[in-house]
Amino acid sequence: MADLSIVFAGIKAPNPFWLASAPPTDKAYNVVRAFEAGWGGVVWKTLGEDPAAVNVSSRYSAHYGANRVVQGINNIELITDRSLEINLREITQVKKDWPDRALIVSLMVPCVEASWKFILPLVEATGADGIELNFGCPHGMPERGMGAAVGQVPEYVEQVTRWCKTYCSLPVIVKLTPNITDIRQSARAAHRGGADAVSLINTINSITSVDLDRMVAHPIVGDQSTHGGYCGSAVKPIALNMVAEIARDPQTRGLPICGIGGIGNWRDAAEFIALGSGAVQVCTAAMLHGFRIVEDMKDGLSRWMDQHGHSSLEAFRGLAVGHTTDWKYLDINYKSIAHIDQDACIGCGRCHIACEDTSHQAIASTVKPDGTHLYSVIEEECVGCNLCQITCPVENCIDMQAQDTGKPYLNWTQDPRNPYREAS
Amino acid sequence: MIDALNHLPRPRAGADQLAEAFSDLAPPLTARQAAVESARCLYCFDAPCVNACPSEIDIPSFIHRISDDNLQGAAERILSANILGGSCARVCPTEILCQQACVRNNAQECAPVLIGQLQRYAIDNAGFTQHPFQRSPATGKRIAVVGAGPAGLSCAHRLAMHGHEVVVFEAQEKPGGLNEYGIARYKLVDDYAQREVEFLLGIGGIEIRYAQRLGANLTLTELHQQYHAVFLGLGLNAVRQLGLPDEDAPGLLAATDYIRELRQADDLSRVPLADRCLVLGAGNTAIDMAVQMSRLGARDVNVVYRRGIAEMGATAHEQDIAKHDQVRLHTWARPDAVLLDDQGRVRGMRFARTQPVAGVLHDTGETFELAADAIFKAIGQRFDEASLSDPLAAQLARDGERIRVDAQLRTSLAGVYAGGDCTALGQDLTVQAVQHGKLAAEAIHAQLMLNVEAA
Ligand SMILES: Cc1cc2nc3c(=O)[nH]c(=O)nc-3n(C[C@H](O)[C@H](O)[C@H](O)COP(=O)(O)OP(=O)(O)OC[C@H]3O[C@@H](n4cnc5c(N)ncnc54)[C@H](O)[C@@H]3O)c2cc1C
Ligand SMILES: Cc1cc2nc3c(=O)[nH]c(=O)nc-3n(C[C@H](O)[C@H](O)[C@H](O)COP(=O)(O)O)c2cc1C
Ligand code: SF4
Ligand code: SF4
Ligand code: SF4
Question: B275 with B351, same domain?
Fold first, then answer.
């Protein structure tokens, strides 16, 4: 079996699957169960200054797909609601009992140097392997001048990172908030401040749904609600993009990235790694299914690596980064056309109506003698948009086939049709 | 009760146990099941299931509405195409109709969306507080409908909706036709048939007159004179004969006669039980008969058919139900003689073994006997000639014994339409009868309005 062990920003772990700072890592009881289940590391639930935060009752809500499949969870919880002293004591003990696992401590204290100077030595004394700066929490904490508010101002990110590097010898991971316009600005700031790594994404501002009888959004606290932070499967595409943006940014090249956001199985993890992540963190999937999922993640990932000849994670880490580029560098001469496998087609007509109503009228519907319909691609009309393939319920029934146009690579910066073409 | 069987014992099981045996063959879906099942529908375009539904219900749309938690909208979608959508959902052989055509029935999945079950769910749970359809302004036209079966009721409803006044003439004491008197008791349970008719009549403008029998106390000539149009939904009310001596002996009767009594019985522990019984035929009626007798507690239930399994009219699904209920199937055997005991009652039947020779059925010369307390004929329904005995009715063109109609359900007599089992068009199914009634109503409406505009 492939070797899943990693050294991420100087931190060793038997596998790349870490639990993100959240309820699953709230206290020793959970963390010990997670280690017993096989997780490679945990980021302890974010610590803050005493007195500890106070949470409301009714904290989560969900966005559902068909059949109550949870697409995403929204939460309005704050950082730890237990005292600093209890948390530090537990962290010390757990690290002592589980020396081979990564134990990172997440921190959020006010944006003043004294606060960091106070807490950092206490954390270092626990024997923890690193710290993660929580600049992401989008609810509750920003109002107190912490969390996302800090994360949204690059100068603050840089400043706090620098304090941490000054007052603590542990690796510093800066957790980025996605509630910004350009994730690279935050990553660059962390990098300038001396961060050993970034982790992303934290949760996204959200309201999942509204109770139309009571006219109040979820989760309902009495007869009110507030926005929360969104996570889970639905945020994965957003997280992947942000990871890729940082991975291919020349200014942060080489900065270790811990991928977070919607990871629920080995394939999700492999995708984050292919886009440059050196480790991944999981929260929602564990909250929905329990810690046991890590067994399946490890098993699936190492089998896939074996099948593809990757002996270590480093062997395929970042391989998709080089293939990710700006739109303007895509080959404008590349052409693909939909092809329907008539043996696999079940005749649902979805491709036809999708293309007919909303795309390029490139799928013809003809009535067969038995009254059923034959769906066929009108190749001259197909622009290769992939919509039919997306709506087709049968996997691999519609194949987007690359065409040999005989034309050379040409990107938009070179295309004569581009009025703003860079003169060559 | 049934005179020909009065000498037989009654079921051993108690009323409760029997009620349980005759409860819904396919129990209603729970809300959760409906949510899961409706989400399986792919919302096909030009959906094959719709083409396969004789009443052309917009299936993807109603299922989508169930999935969207809009049960009233779903029910209205169904009922706008098929006002008896509630009973069709229960009695349709979906395995040869909509569900057979469902794209999820493909070779990789073999699991069609349970369209019939979802249809029932939507209608049972719609919770209408008033009739969902409104009548158009009165047209002043009066139309006579003969027969309050699925065809006649469907026709009446659509006509009323278009603003016409409808009088339905029904020979029996209750409406519903075979929904009331013929469908297997476990398919259409309790008083659903009556409740459905009540719902249907909620539109207004429909009067049903009972004990009015065309060919007895009613003639087509009068109806034709007194009404602007006539619709005949007479069904098939006579039973084919075996053509054997002693066919009227106690212990031998039509399956439909027995089922009628069974459906009407308040207390199932009081109907006659044929512990050893023979059912002749191979259609769904034969299976219904055999399974119902088996559920009453009969120990030895046999269906005997003169041809092979492949030629059977009963669907594979129906055959499975029969097997599940321990019904034994004998093929390639033709009734040869009714065997009587010394009191002149049925004690069994002698059969001649048959074989196909170049497609034609021949006796092999071999015979065998099966003992039985009762024999039920399920060899097909026939048109009841007496209904069309008055001079005008006698003029109606026929296809074989059935009334000839064109695609607009017009008979050979101007202003007279017909639909359902009494015509040769389509299959003998409830849903087909409903469709005929609906189409006939549209044709009548179009014709009457044409005349109005021309005037
Ligand atoms: C035993 C049995 C089981 C069946 N099971 C199924 C099933 O599971 N699923 C399915 O889809 N189909 C089933 N069918 C077929 C289905 O019941 C019929 O196709 C359907 O009822 C036809 O409707 P209809 O309106 O044409 O006729 P009917 O339902 O027969 O109604 C005709 C009506 O006209 C009345 N009438 C007849 N003659 C006169 C007259 N002269 N004057 C006044 N009124 C008259 C009758 O009393 C009756 O009310 C079954 C049929 C039988 C016999
Ligand atoms: C209930 C809940 C509480 C959370 N609390 C914290 C926290 O205290 N500190 C933090 O850095 N992130 C917190 N997060 C965010 C997660 O660590 C993680 O970044 C996010 O959920 C995305 O990962 P996922 O899609 O695997 O859940 C919390 C998430 C949830 C659901
Ligand atoms: S969407 Fe797929 S299965 Fe459906 S008709 Fe088109 S090709 Fe066939
Ligand atoms: S064919 Fe099946 S999946 Fe398609 S619309 Fe009909 S019920 Fe739904
Ligand atoms: S009426 Fe019958 S055939 Fe038509 S959709 Fe409903 S169950 Fe299927």
Answer: yes
Q: Could you tell me the distance, in angstroms and rounded to a whole number, from the CA of residue B430 to the centre of ligand 3?
A: 33
Residue B97 CA: nearest ligand 5 atom is 3
Cβ(B44) – ligand 4 distance below 6 Å: yes
Residue-number span of the structural domain to which A397 is assigned: 327-402
Return d(Cα B170, Cα B183) in angstroms, integer: 18
The pLDDT value given to residue A111: 87
pLDDT tens by residue, A5-31:
999 999 999 999 999 999 999 999 999
Are residues A350 and B51, on separate chains, in Cβ contact within 8 Å? no
Residues in B touching A373 (Cβ below 8 Å): 46, 48
**pTM score of the predicted model:** 0.87
CATH number at B52 reads 1.10.1060.10
Regarding whether B176 and B154 lie in a shared domain, the answer is: yes
pLDDT tens profile A366-379: 999 988 999 999 99
- Complex ipTM: 0.78
Domain count of the fold of chain A: 2
What gap in Å lies between CA B440 and CA B154, rounded to an integer? 9
